Amino acid sequence: MKFTLFFCIFLCPCITICLADSDNLQDTCPTATTGKQTVFINGFPCKNPNSIVASDFKSSKLSHPGDTGNFFRSSLTLDMAADFPGLNTLGLSIARTDLDVDGLTMPHSHPRASEIFFVSTGVVFAGFFDTQSKLFSKTLKPGEVFVVPQGLLHFFINTGDEAAAVFSVLNSQNPGVVKIADAAFELGDEEMVDKLVRKIKSAAALEVKASGIQNVTPTDF
Length: 221
Description:
- The chain is α+β, with helices and mostly antiparallel strands.
- Helix content is 20%, strand content 26%.
- The protein has 3 helices and 11 strands; from the N terminus they run αββββββββββααβ.
- The strands form 2 sheets. It has a 6-stranded antiparallel beta sheet. It has a 5-stranded antiparallel beta sheet with strand order 1-2-9-4-7, with no helix packed on it.
- The protein is elongated, with a radius of gyration of 22 Å.
């Protein structure tokens, strides 16, 4: 009994100490660009502090529209610590979504990150499903922001008459992505993909016509 009590008293502070170092231990830690990876850690190795420069903290990757000449008329450009060194250890990544007229980002989720996105140009209908299969959706204009909780299925669709651009910030340097089309449908199953697209577009049309509607369920499609 005394040994058990002593063990608990000793173990609790040790656990606390181990958890206390979850934040950054240094000011900066840009990703070190190495050749073949030989050490696997939860993140990337840091550059030598003497070789850190201001350009490590700048990226122009999102400055140009992506190619929307595809079936969904959309493009996603993601900038993570692997390509943007200054993001390493900060728990952040950024993205740009370009949507042509009627362009759509198919339902997907980020298992390791919440997402907040800002509409730069155009009019975008955005929505996400919670674990009760309820769809929360809203039409967004330039300057407006929408947030998607971690791991929940979400999508965007351009409901305006011009190209739209959306910029996102995710609270993980490697948020991951699970695409419902890839997970649920066989490659080339255009009929099922087209059916899903039409359901999403019908929900968008409903919200546009009745702007007071904020929540609908998938059965309302």
